[in-house]
Design the sequence.
């Protein structure tokens, strides 16, 4: 499972007015950054936007599933939501939903670096 380069290119093109999108490969997918802030991942051939307790109600109202995966016989969850279908062909919608995800990314506590 590799991250679709065309999807990454579309996200970068649509979000160009907001800043620079970069990506880093991770476990067969990719993590997406807008000017250094994590705002999305691509996993299981889907785009998932960063969410948090403050934005959960908005994602719920849109019917965007939580990101889950199986690990060690358990269903695990991360603070990402499936992107609404409209973002795949509407740059304005991409910017709107990605903006919500960027805000969640900025609110997230900074990761500690190991020595």
Sequence:
């Amino acid at each position: 499972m590799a991250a679709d380069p065309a999807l990454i290119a579309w996200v970068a093109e649509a979000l160009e007015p907001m800043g620079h999108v970069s990506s880093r490969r991770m476990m067969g997918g990719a993590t997406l950054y807008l000017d250094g802030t994590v705002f999305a991942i691509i996993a299981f051939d889907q785009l998932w936007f960063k969410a948090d307790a403050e934005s959960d109600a908005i994602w719920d109202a849109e019917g965007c599933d939580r990101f889950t995966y199986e690990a060690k016989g358990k269903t695990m969850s991360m603070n990402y939501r499936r992107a609404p279908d409209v973002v795949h062909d509407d740059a304005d919608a991409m910017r709107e939903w990605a903006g919500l995800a960027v805000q969640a990314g900025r609110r997230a506590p900074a990761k500690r670096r190991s020595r």
Observations:
- Residues 82 and 98 are 11 Å apart (CA to CA).
